[in-house]
Specification:
Chains A, B: It comes from [Actinomadura] parvosata subsp. kistnae. Chains A, B: GO terms for molecular function: DNA-binding transcription factor activity; transcription cis-regulatory region binding. The structure is a homodimer. Chain A is α/β, with parallel strands linked by helices. Chain A folds into three domains: 45 residues, 434 Repressor (Amino-terminal Domain); 127 residues, Response regulator (Rossmann fold), CATH 3.40.50; 125 residues, 3-Layer(aba) Sandwich (Rossmann fold), CATH 3.40.50.2300. Helix content of chain A is 45%, strand content 17%. Chain A has twelve helices and twelve strands. In chain A, the strands form three sheets. In chain A, strands 2-1-3-4-5-11 form a six-stranded parallel β-sheet, with helices on both faces. In chain A, strand 8, helix 11 and strand 9 form a beta-alpha-beta unit. Chain A starts with a helix and ends in a 9-residue tail after the last strand. The interface between A and B is large, with 52 and 52 residues. The structure holds a DNA duplex.
DNA sequence: GACCTCCCGGAAAGCGGTTTCCAAGTCTGC
DNA sequence: GCAGACTTGGAAACCGCTTTCCGGGAGGTC
């Protein structure tokens, strides 16, 4: 590959001068030399070696984002928000997907640390397992000790900047809205018990029902994805309203009902959580809690880059959106 | 940050020995020294500086993927396929999104070149503009001249390894299947004329109709996304069957019809292209052409990494999937 | 015109690793 | 017991770039 030295030689100047011309510096370079260097670089097709720059400057211009699954539109939206924010700062993005394996998440933090990325963003729910979370914390702390910056979208469990959606509150508000429509018998497709996001939404929902004096919902655990919702829906017994703790599960539930000839919302009402954009044309339109996913991603990056002391943006509000998948009870 | 020198000092060995123990080498290191080094590294929380390694080794372990829009499930699936393939090779991934700006694509290739990534993957349709494509070619050639590797998912227009879906053939087969159902009056929601993927699908469809002796379809251009499909559907006149050149446009069209009280498939049949997984629960279920997106992404990465001479995998076959959004004509 | 700044070009010292080359052991085989 | 072949540890060159430090010349002041 073409190096700076090649360019300097071709232009008949020193390395220092070539560097100052091509890669930004506070120092001025005279017009004639500057032109010669630029021409040489162009002729040779020079591209600065960023690994070398990073090493010399002691700072890189890339950030790392770790998500669970890029094909899940929830993560895609969050990641997209963060990537747009990164682009405006002139930063590049390395993306890692854990496929929901917490060990992978830890491994990625180590790898991104080794890459000396400017910041790492952990996107997605924490798990309840204290030991795993502890190891992740350690890995992050080690990275931060070396000057790294980190933020998380999810729960404030890592001791880093955090953007935390109001999962409990959003679910509670949804519960109240559904109760308002006259529902009293609920089921919750609750996802995996160890996933904090899922657990929070389930708990917020249940608690709100309790405060309203309504009976506790039937809680059905299962995977956090479309098929999990599909399977869990089969086990619902006697509820008039089903809350799936995220939208893709709700879509799975709707599919299960459709196949069995159960009409939504006539026979049963269904609600989800997140308000995934890709699902906006779903039939019936899904009642859900809208989260500003892109903003949250962007905000988290901002925090990671700018805050010295860990800042926690608690309870990013969701907005209940009532659509045709729920009906008013007679 | 902790450096290798710190570790070596702490362990009382030379830099060379520490390097050999920690960062893999053909050379053996005695058991006792090895243990001392490992203990020191662990105590200090050492993480190799990959920028330095990349510089010293002259080879990096990251690849770059450039997509148009991560929140579009089409790209998410392709990227996910490539990322899984990368992970099995122990490679890290940098992702760039162009937001459909071809200039951005060129800029990303330059940036990834500067990063000295092992390979770059360009995912998504080429544009018809010769000048833009030419500049992208130049940028890629320059990168490859320096030992970089590149591949593309889309059309074979860049002189690099390419995985090209059989857009024309898939659309043609779809046209024949729809004609088989008795349709004769077609419209095509054709997307932007300059997008090669869109144009190919439209052309393949039209040509097949022509070969069947059927009248040419009404062709309506517009954006390549959901809203483009929505808007284009409004302009359809007198067709019994509408082909949207991708699934998200088809979903937009379905939404437009639903709002206007036009029944699908009773009043009009609708088909898309791609078979996006997220849409599998859409109502009515979308007739489409299934493309093996994840495989294509993985395959492209494989080509980039292993092939010396540009290899073109032409015409990755799509499979027509007939679902309820189309009906047989009486 | 002497003296001081200021400006700009270049030499060279890093940045944190890898790897080549040596030297000093340690094993073999006879 | 000793030459020759392997091992293994360390010194130092090098990867490509940034930046500090120097020095020479131009411009300004009295």
């Amino acid at each position: 590959m073409v190096t700076l030295e090649d360019v300097a030689k071709q232009a008949g100047v020193s390395l220092a001068t070539a560097s100052r011309v091509l890669n930004g510096s506070t120092r001025q370079v005279g017009a004639s030399l500057r032109a010669r260097v630029e021409r040489a670089a162009d002729e040779l097709g020079y591209r600065a070696n960023i690994a070398a720059q990073t090493l010399a400057r002691g700072a890189s211009n890339v950030i790392g984002i770790v998500v669970h699954d890029l094909t899940d539109p929830y993560f895609a939206a969050l990641a997209d928000g963060a990537m747009r924010a990164a682009a405006t700062e002139g930063l590049l993005v390395m993306v890692g997907t854990t496929h929901r394996d917490p060990e992978q998440e830890i491994a990625y933090v180590a790898t991104l640390h080794a890459q000396r990325v400017r910041a790492v963003l952990l996107v997605g729910s924490r798990v309840a397992d204290q030991r795993v979370t502890g190891r992740l914390r350690d890995e992050l702390a080690r990275y931060q000790a070396g000057g790294g910056r980190a933020a998380c979208v999810g729960q404030d469990l890592l001791g880093v900047d955090t953007v935390a959606p109001a999962n409990r509150e959003g679910a509670a508000e949804l519960a109240r809205a559904l109760a308002e429509l006259g529902h009293t018998k609920f089921a919750v497709l609750a996802g995996p018990p160890h996933l904090v996001t899922a657990a929070d939404r389930c708990a917020g929902f249940s608690q709100a029902l309790d405060e309203l004096g309504l009976p506790a919902p039937q809680v059905i655990h299962g995977p956090f994805d479309r098929d999990g919702g599909y399977a869990a829906a089969q086990q619902v017994k006697g509820a008039t309203c089903v809350f799936a703790v995220n939208d893709v599960m709700a879509v799975g539930a709707l599919a299960a009902y459709r196949e069995r000839g159960v009409r939504v919302p006539d026979d049963v009402s269904v609600a989800g959580f997140d308000d995934i954009v890709t699902l906006r044309d779903h039939v019936p339109a899904l009642t859900t809690v809208r989260l500003p996913l892109k903003d949250m991603g962007a905000r988290a990056l901002e925090l990671a880059l700018n805050e010295d002391e860990p800042v926690v943006v608690e309870k990013v509000a969701g907005e209940v959106v009532l659509r045709e998948s729920v009906r008013r009870m007679p």
